[in-house]
Amino acid sequence: MKGVQFLVDEQGNKTAVLIDLKRHADLWEDIYDRALAASRAGEPRETLASVKKRLEQSRKRAARG
Based on the structure, what is the number of domains in the chain? Predict the structure, then answer.
């Protein structure tokens, strides 16, 4: 694949990758998004319903004051 190079160790194992960001910006965004999601895997989740409720309450408070 043009614009992608792998760095290898003494045994020939791939250890890193160089990506031409001008050519593969969309690929980098996908890789970054997956890494970010994986790093947040252990964080607590919030349901859509609770987010909507919190936003509605916040809007009501803002309208009052």
Answer: 1
